[in-house]
């Protein structure tokens, strides 16, 4: 479904695209760039492991909760205005992050930063959808999708360089000049013209229910992620997930009965739109959630620094810059569901290849073929997904469609991180038990004590424990280190295979449901 040629009255639309892309890049990269700074933050602010987890979670939870709300506010009061407000909040939040002198301050300021970041992500697709049309829309969405893929995977590269060259505060202070430049560009070049402004009052109850649903869901998953020894029946986990189900049911009831609902449920009558949000979820769960574990594997076990890890992961993210615009142009010619299936299958094949190449001696020299295959799929998947969503709804629904795609993707990341973490932990513990039994030359007392410590510390800390001075002083250090690496590999292989299956399932569903593109315009 195409717009009229209204956007041709805005000759500065390509400069507007730069502003939108910069905003999205900052918002998304701050979900991953902080990972490589955590050791420095821990030392500087005297933070515990739990404190460090909340540096990440405080951002991701608030980011997820507000995506739909910003989309609705953009429909009501203007997407350009809401985008600029979000940009101001994000930039101020970044400055406050850098000024934090305690870990509690950093948690609060990260949440403030996420309020703005959520607006930048939520409104981006709709701003492009109403600023471009026809072939130009496909190209513009392809470029923005390239930025999304690049920002998600390049966090370790940029963060590693900034932390090594300056300090952990620099990952936040860099947002200050970029934020000011982006704000000027947005003010000058993003058009105020909007195809449709939603009418009526703000559905405050709907907003409250949607925020409560997403908060309960994501927070429950975060609780499970942070306490891997808890079962799903634990009140602190099951209680939040049950609340999410109840609040979601109330939200749907509200949307069906309210005079001015927050969300137009009629969008889901389109199988293409439904397919687009489903593949967004699987993409978040199966690929974007995977990068955190890939970075841990390469830094903690293969032995690369943060900078070296990011540089090698550019083998994956770099394809977004090349293939994103190309895939965007092809969305005008090919059926979007088939394009998405092709890309998802490529990612799945790449992940299966990575699992086959993983061994206790493997390095990037072994992994690069898998990285390239994943990069080809990941670099080409976002344009047909966003184009399918935007072209399967009415122009006045584009703001909410943009918010839905972002929300499903972010919730998918939360699901993926938790379930991948469980698969990793289970595989790691199984691997420890299996490989420690083979250490016939190591005294049983040492094996028993180390096994207990390693299981309690978890897979992320295993390498640091086994390479501590105390362990290295023993004559069994090399054997123990090899056993722990093999145990982590076992869990990591489980993670890659799970993600591969998720992406392939998502690709099949996309091929079946999404009918836009090619000779099927709606």
TrEMBL record:
CDD domains: MFS_MMR_MDR_like (cd17321). Residues 16-460 form the Major facilitator superfamily (MFS) profile domain. Coiled coil: none annotated. It is a multi-pass membrane protein. The keyword Magnesium does not apply. GO terms for cellular component: plasma membrane. GO terms for molecular function: transmembrane transporter activity. Gene3D superfamilies: MFS general substrate transporter like domains (1.20.1250.20), Multidrug resistance protein D (1.20.1720.10). Its main location: membrane. Keywords: Cell membrane, Membrane, Transmembrane, Transmembrane helix, Transport. The chain crosses the membrane at residues 14-34, 54-71, 83-106, 112-132, 139-162, 168-190, 202-223, 235-253, 273-294, 314-331, 338-357, 363-381, 401-422, 500-518. It is found in: Cell membrane. Belongs to the major facilitator superfamily. EmrB family. This is MFS transporter. It comes from Leuconostoc pseudomesenteroides. The lineage of its organism: Bacteria, Bacillati, Bacillota, Bacilli, Lactobacillales.
